[in-house]
Please model this.
Amino acid sequence: MIRGKFITLEGGEGVGKTTNMAFIKDYLQQHDISVVVTREPGGTELAEKIRKLLLDNDSETISEQAELLLMFAARAQHIKHVIEPALAHGKWVLCDRFTDATYAYQGGGRNMKISTIQWLENLVQGTLRPDLTLLLDAPVDIGIERVRKRGAFDRFESEKVSFFENIRRAYLLQAELYPERIKLIKANQPLPDVQRAITDVIRVLLGLCSLNCPASPRHGSVK
Ligand code: T5A
Model:
């Protein structure tokens, strides 16, 4: 059995991750790929309970260490019960956020030590890393405005603008550190353009196209 591919979608608040998950799933299915769609924090019964604890605004103040450990506790469940079994059965896993979010939010946003995050990453994931990460990037005010239109803010969305600026910076640093894996998509353009850029990257992963292939008329959005 050929192992499946692991694709993650990342980016700050309201950049369009959820919107584009369905698009990517459909695109992969059109190419006869069996896809498991999931998210973090979450993806299993226990991990979804942890998600609720992390996002609810009404719980006691969560310490930075507790937040980091809860993220990885949820991830450990998710990997063991969803991600690894699916990949081992040849399915592709499409995940809304993964450990790059921890580097961005807990590292960049909460200022937790990167070496601590790396240690937990190795403990919980072993050698598991995404094959491809699509980083949707947009100026912070655009993402927040999109989220605001949707209604009430969760615990993370209620943070100050500087928190989100630090997250954006940390994500861009991750993209610089891992240019082979993380592909930057400009998310502050009309949705059809965002999706064209996403398709161009996925086509490379599918082996339908090389990196320099002029897959679509407006190819310039992918790093
Ligand atoms: N977290 C998570 C951590 O702190 N550490 C971690 O390790 C992990 C894994 C999870 C929270 O947990 C934190 C980060 C998060 O705060 P979440 O729900 O997964 O929460 O993440 P959110 O960013 O809150 O998800 P959102 O739903 O708010 O944002 P999305 O999914 O990026 O945006 P989406 O698709 O819902 O779009 C928002 C709106 O914009 C519109 C959409 O229609 C929608 O209305 N839109 C566009 N409009 C115009 N042009 C475009 N190109 C558009 N694309 C989307």
About this structure: Residues 11, 13-19, 39-41, 71, 96-97, 101-102, 105-106, 146-147, 150, 156-157, 187, 190-191, 194 surround T5A (CB under 6 Å).
